Amino acid sequence: MASSNSAPGIGFPSVLAHAFFLQAAVYLVRPATSYKALELGVDPGLLGLVVASFSILPVLLAVFIGRAADRGREKHILLAGAALLIIAGAGLLFAAPSLPALLGWNLILGVGHLMSLIGEHSRLASATNRNMDRVFGFYTMVTAVAQAVAPLLLGLLGGAAVAPDTSVLLRAYMVGAGGVLATGILMARHRGAVRATGPAKAQVKLRTALRVPPAARNTLIASIGLSMMVLCTIDLMQVYLPALAVERGISTQAVGMLLALRAAATVLSRLAMERLVRSVGRARLLLGSTGISAVLIALLVLPLPTPAMAALLVLAGLALGIGQPLSMTVVSMTATEGTRGTWMSIRLLGNRLGQAVIPVGVGVFATALGAGGVFLALGATTAAATLGAIVPLRSMDD
Length: 398
Known about the structure:
The protein is mostly helical. 80% of the residues lie in helices and 0% in strands. It contains 16 helices and no strands. The longest helix has 35 residues, at 214-248. Residues 1-8 and 193-203 have low confidence and may be disordered.
């Protein structure tokens, strides 16, 4: 899939490189902040606050940043996002002696991550390729590869210790954040695809951007809801699997391997996604994958041996790999010219809203049942979201 065929004019290779560094950095720093919180003596039930702090400001800023992307501010968004990632990493490394400080730096980290993602998604959504399943499938496959590399690095740096040296992990994150800045500069050198409708069309009012037929709106809302649950599940896994490992005496090296297996399985499912869409249909594939992942994630509440946990996470990774690219495809194909950045940001807003609210709720289960209770709660919530999406997604064109 060369840039000339898949995403002309948007600097596709630089987008993929940016996505790789961004995901690798973030998927290393999230478990690192979890270990840092435990190092500070934070109760596992409060780890939900660490996750929520990553998403609170993005909930407020997502649509505003998306509108800025629609007005052609992608370059500024990309570079500012990279700068915030570096600032947050430095703060976590050198100035996080307490939980409030940790939460504050995590706020900045979340905004930097959001800006970087919106810059990527807006650039991809401007591609003229008709087969968006392939474009977004390839993009999310690269992100999944990064999500597999990060936990392997976590295990390598953490070794056999149950509680690793977080300063080493955070320094490695800073290297990844530097890669985000470097590739962001490369992305900024490309103009991006030129919209045939001209600049006036890119200034569509927010109210107009949200006007879609009822059936399309219901489909969008349902797919965004499922995307939110998939992302929350993957995100909370980065935070609560280390906590579960500490409770069960599992080494950092083993945690890294478990997370890497989940991500590697996600890569495989995304490689096969285009074929699966043709065989199963977009709606059935989206519903089936989230429903299966709900059951598998809930089973982690059981006191399973590490090999059994690995098997569950591989199967869950195969299922979880479908939701994100399919929801991106739905948004990109449904939104009109000049509003795609806005709709992509609304999708991210839904993701961040879930990341801000759901972790606090599931933290109650961690207090009552230990870290494993979080996975039971996640499975039940994802199952409920899947059932609620069945009727709206029936109108989705396969």
